[in-house]
Amino acid sequence: MAFNVVGLFDNPRDAEGAARALRDAGFDNISFVGNNANNNYATGDSEAAEGAGAGATGGAVLGGLAGLLVGLGALVIPGIGPVVAAGTLATALGSTAVGAGIGAAAGGLVGALVGAGIPEEDAHVYAEGVRRGGSVLSVQVDSQDEANRVAQIMSDYNVVDIDRRGQEYRQSGWSRFDDTAGPYDASTTTHGSNVAATPARNIDQAGEMRVPVVEEEVRVGKRAVEGGGVRVVHRVEETPVNEQVTLRDEKVTVDRRPVDRELSSGEVDAAFRDGDVVEVRERAEEAVVDKQARVVEEVVIRKDAQERTENVQDTARRTDVEVEKLQGTTRTSGYTETGTTQTNGYRDTGTTSTMVATNEDEGAIERGVSKAENAVERGTGLDLDRDGDVGVRDPRNNI
Length: 399
Prior knowledge:
- By secondary structure, the chain is an alpha+beta fold.
- Among the domains are: 176 residues, no CATH class; 50 residues, no CATH class.
- The chain has eight helices and seven strands.
- α3 crosses α4.
- The longest helix has 17 residues.
């Protein structure tokens, strides 16, 4: 029975590292599709790709994967853009030869993944992951043990949890991969996250805009996983048995002997009686085998269960909101926390500072200096004390 193990990788280095580790472990039936909008799989000095027909792709030279995956080629997938592909996925997409750039792929990535045995719902998530800059590795193996080994190797290289990624996509309003959407644009993607950056929004008129602070909640559950065990097979074996038994055989012998004697009076009548028959039979004994089944041993199969406590470690992500003041003559004030979420990281990027009004009196000297300074400000129009108010006295000196 064949198994297909498929993994999505956000980072091109993780995808290439996983492919190399799989080849080193003896797995050679590897398919690969990697987004190449950023030219992640092209280097100018790759010796492995010098003979790969690089000129056919407009001068780009396929890099580290060229010498690793057989049949690696460059193509364009509708809704995704430029990719490199190898293996059966490349065949399904219409790739022909190494470095042979072609136009649009003959079939969509979702169809190729479904053809490889991936459920359609998951295939849409994989395709969207490639559109956002990711890479897909698919390995075909012959047994469950080999499939487990492939999955472990992929997990060592930061393979994406496809169920969680699908939930994240759908929470943001995504429903399915759209092959009519625009190709992947690296300039609209946050570095390292492969998630399109949200454009800046302005409040043009009076109103409010809410910026959510999102925090992941880690839920730890459990599921049954089939492990080892025992298999008891009942077989019948025949064992030769040799026993000795004494048997008795009878044999009848007839002899004729010459005799010369007279019959007595009592023997005469018996001797001449007609119809008398004397019958003597031979008997013999034969061996008789009788079998009786007896229980001589029992094999008892028992399953014991015990509970254990396992420490589960994971990471929970949390977004934060950083508020920055923009340079200008308008003063922004009133940072107010209206919820229980504590938001920190206010950073002032301007050269001015915001004064805080208190009822503390600095004294008569300060009041006199403030009056004189304010008079000069009113006469010249200059903000000498840089408090944002020309000609207005320092609140602390107004008592």
